[in-house]
Each structure stands twice: as structure tokens, then as C-alpha cells.
């Protein structure tokens, strides 16, 4: 465990992740001052979180002054935009790439900076048909991705490599997060799964991994108060296929021909409609699975599994499900009972029924009372 | 077995089958199944893919298998075979031979060309049945996980060759499969597959069409494309599959980067398969016999 930290600067506190990270740091005794840096006024519900956090309303351009004046010991850079907002793609790139460049320039000159924690994404691995199934931190992207956010991430990680070369004395932690999910997360992907009918790419069933937002907060917190230099994949263990996730959520998948979707995504990007873009399309064609061995070994922390994180999300959004697991179980029971009743009736009428001993007919009644699934499983065992 | 009459009573097989099918359907529709990080869906494979392939395996190709004892009981193994037959039917039949013949009913995890993963639907069928991209990170990950991995180093040179070159092994590429085995200390089990060459005999290759469709070749067989969809029915050749004794690699782990060692070992595997092919062909004078 490290000594107390005097000043921690957190960027992007007008957003969910930044605000929660800052609030948790402010509540930790090991941390002295927590200063939030963001050009935007946080929304009211986010402002509530920021009780113990000093706020500086400034964009990354003034980061050098802020970091130097505060004599920051740790900088936590979370101000990334994952999908174009009203400002459009150019504003997004400005914030992600130029903002990070300016912040890193500020950090490079800060004399007492000890640590830098950066948010990145598993989008850093690009998307190609020649990709290995599972990315480790060493995997190089084989193809420049189509999505704007993924390209920003590649740029950002490029700058960071340069920064590490120039300031090897600063411990830099890069966290490559899988897409966030959970009951409180609100992202492009959670909004996608929250719809009752969800479009998918025809003929593709990508493997997805999620990270519960609470676990993301935990990992960022530990990166600040403990020392874990290096790059880490941060994701929930295990995998859900997109079709499987949609079924678990009780949604209906509508497969769409890919060229149509790409055109729609490009058009939506151009017209600044919605938040779907080529980033989502790349994910939905190629899927993305990472190895988290390094995180688990180094942090001694295991994020909840992808399936568990997704379950937490489903519970929150169960009201908009079209078909729930209970519906299906009820339908199964009805059909099975119906078939049994019909068979029992025909067996009574037909003389052939004689070959069906009365005892068996009784056992039908008892079989119905058995807990679901048990008889089937024993049948599976025989195969 | 003392009182079979009593045991029979609750075992109404028809009822059980209906109940099991319904419960299978419910599990599938509610997403209550597991896929691994490569996308392998064992439930779908065992209950949907394998039963279909099994019919082809027994009734259509009348497959006979030898040398199953050469497969590792458990733990990793790299099964290396000859590739032929225009489409990768040999890989699928090999999976059935291993699953149904191995005492522990092991799943063969196949490594496929990236072309397979470019094609919608096909890519997902491959992943769900346990396949993944043929690249060293995936091969080594599967092998370190103790899986039985299947690979065809000839690639398209093997599947897409002319009928007159049948059962002549093509070049083995860069021997990436050997380095994956060496790095993980996995035994290599060569396997010879006879029968796949005759299912769609390639008599010609329409190169311009292939280029247009971005395929490595466009086959012309006695029935395809002349008979349309009927041309997709494979000819009912007689299949023989023989697993050869495993080649241990555990003592070569530190030589995984030595190209000489890799080429020699790849050659050894290739020779073994070629000899076994000749021996099997002598056993099967008529390609379409019983």
C-alpha cells in the first residue's frame, strides 16, 4: 500500500465514470485533495455526487496551468467520449485525441507527478477477420478499425507510448475497458439492449464481453491508491454471444444485411442522428474477447463475469422484455401437458393402449409434479 | 437388472423425448447455455450439428476408423491431417470419428482459414462447432487449455487440388502448427483420411469466376455447377481414417524457434501421413465399394 496521495486530478467529472471515480477518491482517507477538471457543468444528479470534490471548469487546453498550479501527484484521465454527441464526430475527436494530447503534454512537464491512470478501451485491438479469438495486452491490431472511437483509442495509446518513453519515472496505468453494463450504466450499448427489438448483422453472432460499471470504478480506484504500472484488459470473464444476450434479455433480434447497416451507420453519423456508428458495427461483426489474466494477477481483483454483469442489467430493464424466461417455461409446461393429455386420451381410446400399463399412466401424473429439467437431464446423460 | 419390468414403467421413451426436446428448445430460446471464449457451443454441437453429420458419416460415407488409441486420453493433442474434397468435409468427419470413437467423447477444435471467418453464417457455424482462426495465438491458447486441436496444414492447396493429384500431399506451409505444438509441448498425432478426394472430384477451376467471388478456386466437378443444387450432393465414396502413433514434442520445447527443427518435424508428419494414405488406399481398391 502506498503513502497518502496529496493531490489527485480527475478529468471528465461531468460524466458518470469521472464523477463516481472522483467521489470515491474523495471519500478515501488515503487521498488528500481531489480536483475534478471538466469544461462542462455537471448535470444536477451528477453534481450531487461531487460533494468532496473541488471542481475546475476548464478544457484540456488549460490543463498545463491546472496541473502545474495544483502540483498534482496523480492524474486520472477519464474524459473520453465513446460515441458522437450533439457536437458530432469532430467535437468527439477534438475531446478524445487533442484533449489527451494536451493533457499528456501537461503531465510531461509536471515535476512532481508520480502517476498517470488512463482510460482506454478494448477497441484498441481493432477488428479484422484474421484476429485471434482472444486478445492479450500484447496483441497488435491487424487492421485500422472503421469506427471513430476505435481510431481515437489507437491515437491516444500511440501518444501514451511516446509519453512513457519521455517520462519513464511516471508510473502509467492504461485500463482497456470492455463495454460497460450494469443496472446504472447508460451507454450506447445499454440503450441498444434496452430496446424491445434490436437490430443485428445478418449471419453474424459476435462474442461479446461486458464489464460491470461498479467493477470499472473499483479498478480505477485501485489503480490510483495502489501502484499497478502497465496496460491491462479490464472485462468480465466469460463470453456471451450476441444472440444469446438478446435471448437472455428477452428481446427480439432483427437481422439486417450488413451493407445496409454500414450505409445506415455512415448516414446516421453524417446526419448526426442517434449514436450508432461504425464502432458498434465493427463490434457486431467481429465481436471482441480479451484475456484478463494480467489484471486478476496484478490487482488481485476479479470483475464479476460477463454473464453476471449482464444479468444485473437485465433485472433493471426487465419491464421492456418481450419474452421472458418465465413465459418460455410456462409455454413449455403447457405444451408438454397438452401432449401428455392428448396421448393419455388416445391411449385410453385405442386398443393399443393396452400395451401401456396403467402404472405408466399414473407415473405421468407424478412426472408432472417433478421439478423441471430433471428427467431431461438424465436422458441427456444416456446419449 | 433384477426387476426390469419396474424400471421400464417410468421410462416412457416417447414422453421423455418430447420433454427433453421441449426443454432443449426452452434453454435455447432463453439463452440459458454456455459458450466458451472461442464461441464454442457444446450443447448446439452435440444436439444439432453432430447428429446431422453422423448420418453422413455412417450411412453415406460408411466410414471406418483405425488407430483411435493413438489419441491422447486427456490433455492437449494436435491432430494433423491431409486436406481434400473441395469443401472441408474431411474436417467435419474427423470431428465425428474422434467424438464417437474416443472413450471420453472429446470435441475436436478445428483451425480454419480466415476466409471461413469472412463469410457470414459459415463463420458463426464454425465458431459454434468449436472452430477458430488458424493462427498461433489461438492454437497455443487451445493447446495450453488441454484441448484436442485439428489442423490441415495444406490449407486451400489441399482442398482445391485437381482430381488427378488426389492423395498427393501438398506443401505444408511455414510449419506454424509445429511451432504451436513445440511451444506447448503437445504431442502431434498425424491422421490420414481416405475418401474425401472422391466426394467432389475437381476436374477444372474457373479462375475468373473465383477471382470475381474472391475465392481461392472455383471448382468444376462432374456434377457442379451443371446440376445446380443437386451438384452439391457429395458422391458416396468409402472413407477410411487412420490415426498414426503420436510424435512427442515435450523434449523440444526450447527449440520452438529453430526453423530447422520445425521443418524436419513438419516433414516427418507429412511423410507419415503420405505413407499411411498409400497403405489405406491399398486397403480400398474401389473408391465407391462397400
From TrEMBL, chain B:
SMART domains: PlsC (SM00563). GO terms for molecular function: acyltransferase activity. Keywords: Acyltransferase, Transferase. The keyword Acyltransferase applies. InterPro entries: P_lipid/glycerol_AcTrfase_prd, Plipid/glycerol_acylTrfase. The keyword Repressor does not apply. It holds the Pfam family Acyltransferase. Residues 77-196 form the Phospholipid/glycerol acyltransferase domain. It comes from the Bacteria. This is Lysophospholipid acyltransferase family protein. The lineage of its organism: Bacteria, Bacillati, Actinomycetota, Actinomycetes, Micromonosporales.
Amino acid at each position: 500500500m502506498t503513502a497518502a496521495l496529496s493531490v489527485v486530478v480527475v478529468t471528465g467529472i461531468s460524466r458518470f465514470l469521472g464523477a463516481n471515480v472522483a467521489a470515491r477518491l474523495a471519500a478515501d482517507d488515503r487521498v488528500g485533495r481531489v480536483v475534478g477538471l471538466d469544461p462542462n457543468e455537471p448535470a444536477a444528479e451528477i453534481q450531487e455526487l461531487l460533494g468532496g470534490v473541488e471542481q475546475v471548469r476548464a478544457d484540456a487546453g488549460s490543463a498545463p496551468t491546472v496541473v502545474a498550479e495544483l502540483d498534482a501527484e496523480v492524474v486520472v484521465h477519464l474524459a473520453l467520449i465513446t460515441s458522437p454527441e450533439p457536437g458530432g464526430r469532430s467535437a468527439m475527436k477534438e475531446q478524445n485525441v487533442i484533449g489527451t494530447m494536451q493533457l499528456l503534454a501537461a503531465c510531461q512537464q509536471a515535476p512532481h507527478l508520480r502517476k498517470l491512470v488512463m482510460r482506454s478501451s478494448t477497441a484498441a485491438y481493432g477488428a479484422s477477420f484474421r484476429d485471434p479469438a482472444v486478445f492479450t495486452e500484447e496483441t497488435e491490431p491487424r487492421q485500422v478499425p472503421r469506427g471513430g472511437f476505435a481510431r481515437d483509442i489507437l491515437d491516444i495509446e500511440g501518444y501514451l507510448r511516446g509519453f512513457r518513453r519521455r517520462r519513464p519515472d511516471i508510473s502509467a496505468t492504461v485500463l482497456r475497458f470492455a463495454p460497460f453494463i450494469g443496472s446504472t450504466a447508460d451507454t450506447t450499448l445499454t440503450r441498444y439492449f434496452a430496446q424491445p427489438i434490436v437490430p443485428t448483422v445478418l449471419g453474424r453472432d459476435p462474442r461479446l464481453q461486458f464489464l460491470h460499471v461498479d467493477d470499472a470504478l473499483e479498478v480505477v480506484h485501485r489503480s490510483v491508491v495502489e501502484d499497478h504500472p502497465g496496460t491491462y484488459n479490464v472485462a468480465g470473464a466469460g463470453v456471451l454471444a450476441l444472440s444469446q444476450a438478446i435471448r437472455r434479455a428477452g428481446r427480439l433480434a432483427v437481422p439486417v444485411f450488413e451493407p445496409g447497416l454500414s450505409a445506415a451507420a455512415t448516414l446516421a453519423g453524417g446526419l448526426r442522428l442517434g449514436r450508432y456508428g461504425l464502432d458498434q458495427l465493427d463490434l457486431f461483426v467481429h465481436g471482441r474477447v480479451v484475456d484478463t489474466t494480467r489484471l486478476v494477477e496484478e490487482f488481485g481483483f476479479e470483475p464479476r463475469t460477463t454473464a453476471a454483469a449482464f444479468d444485473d442489467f437485465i433485472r433493471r430493464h426487465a419491464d421492456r422484455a418481450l419474452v421472458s424466461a418465465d413465459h418460455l417455461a410456462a409455454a413449455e409446461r403447457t405444451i408438454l401437458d397438452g401432449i401428455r393429455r392428448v396421448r393419455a386420451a388416445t391411449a385410453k381410446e385405442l386398443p393399443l393402449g393396452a400395451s401401456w400399463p396403467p402404472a405408466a399412466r399414473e407415473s405421468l401424473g407424478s412426472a408432472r409434479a417433478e421439478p423441471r429439467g430433471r428427467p431431461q437431464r438424465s436422458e441427456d446423460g444416456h446419449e | 437388472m433384477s426387476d426390469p419390468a419396474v424400471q421400464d414403467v417410468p421410462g416412457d421413451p416417447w414422453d421423455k423425448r418430447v420433454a427433453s426436446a421441449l426443454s432443449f428448445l426452452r434453454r435455447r430460446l432463453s439463452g440459458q447455455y454456455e459458450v466458451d471464449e472461442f464461441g464454442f457451443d457444446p450443447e448446439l454441437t452435440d444436439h444439432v450439428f453432430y447428429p446431422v453429420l453422423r448420418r453422413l458419416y455412417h450411412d453415406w460415407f460408411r466410414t471406418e476408423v483405425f488407430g483411435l488409441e493413438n489419441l491422447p486420453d486427456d490433455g492437449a493433442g494436435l491432430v494433423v491431417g491431409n486436406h481434400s474434397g473441395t469443401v472441408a468435409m474431411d474436417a467435419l468427419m474427423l470431428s465425428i470419428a474422434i467424438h464417437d470413437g474416443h472413450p471420453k467423447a472429446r470435441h475436436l477444435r478445428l483451425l480454419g482459414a480466415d476466409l471461413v471467418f469472412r463469410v457470414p453464417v459459415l463463420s458463426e457455424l464454425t465458431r459454434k462447432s468449436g472452430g477458430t482462426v488458424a493462427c498461433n495465438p489461438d492454437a497455443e491458447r487451445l493447446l495450453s487449455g488441454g484441448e484436442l486441436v485439428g489442423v490441415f496444414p495444406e490449407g486451400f492447396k489441399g482442398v482445391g487440388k485437381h482430381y488427378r493429384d488426389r492423395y498427393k500431399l501438398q506443401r505444408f506451409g511455414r510449419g506454424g502448427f509445429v511451432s504451436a505444438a513445440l511451444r506447448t509441448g503437445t504431442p502431434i498425432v498425424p491422421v490420414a483420411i481416405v475418401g474425401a478426394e472422391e466426394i467432389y472430384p475437381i476436374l477444372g477451376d474457373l479462375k475468373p469466376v473465383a477471382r470475381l467471388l474472391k475465392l481461392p478456386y472455383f471448382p468444376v466437378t462432374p456434377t457442379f455447377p451443371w446440376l445446380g443444387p443437386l451438384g452439391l450432393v457429395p458422391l458416396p465414396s468409402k472413407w477410411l481414417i487412420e490415426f498414426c502413433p503420436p510424435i512427442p514434442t515435450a523434449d523440444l520445447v526450447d527449440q520452438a524457434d529453430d526453423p530447422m527443427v520445425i521443418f524436419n518435424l513438419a516433414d516427418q508428419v507429412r511423410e507419415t501421413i503420405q505413407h499411411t494414405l498409400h497403405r489405406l488406399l491399398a486397403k480400398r481398391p474401389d473408391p465407391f465399394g462397400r
